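Data deposition worksheet. Section B asks for the primary sequence of the deposited chain exactly as it was used as input, without tags or linkers unless they were present during the calculation. Section C holds the resulting structure in token form. Section D is free text for depositor observations; keep each observation to a single sentence. Incomplete worksheets are returned to the depositor.
Section A, Depositor: J.P.
Section B:
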Amino acid sequence: MVDAIDAVNTQACVSYVSGLQKPSGVFAGDEWGEEDTRFVYTALQTLKILGRLDTVDVERAVEFVLRCQNYDGGFGVVPGAESHSGQIFTCVGVLSMTNTLDRLTPASRDQLAGWLAQRQLPNGGLNGRPEKLEDVCYSWWVLSSLAMLGKLHWIDQNKLVGWILSCQDEMRGGLADRKGDAVDVFHTVFGIAGLSLVGWGGLKEVDPIYCMPVETTRRLFGPR
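Section C:
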């Protein structure tokens, strides 16, 4: 779709998305729905692609995200919610795309990266939060956040690659959440995106902020 923006009713899209921001800075998923960091990320990404971040209060959105950081360094869906790798991606993604990642102190960024690195289990896989099973999709949520923080080297990448590859269906193709389960598109996408982040197999380079090819984000936003 980023190659066919002229097919989008940009003004209607911008009006709808910007109208979902609340006074706290958070965004709702729709006019009736939940309000949390997932929608802050998706709203700001949408508006950035359309070149209309000026239509919302970016500073309030950033302040909301910062209030979602916990004592353990992680981020939750709303202030006070449990830290979770998926929500960390949305929050670090917001800070990265708005050039406000430096609002986290170096000590805070290291604590966050440490929490993410602890998601790697002995078999090499990554989980979303403590005491949970490993899952291929966290090869994206965890790795992308570590990449944005400049800490990809804090995990054992070779061990992770081996674990991701063990989750593929060698007969039909695709990746499952973990070895022996049914493959699906969701886990295949995020497993391959994770492999790209660690430079495996000559895959196209993926931008950790947007989960799009770097060649696409450079065309949209210019080099970082």
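Section D:
The chain has a mean pLDDT of 96.
The longest helix spans residues 37-49.
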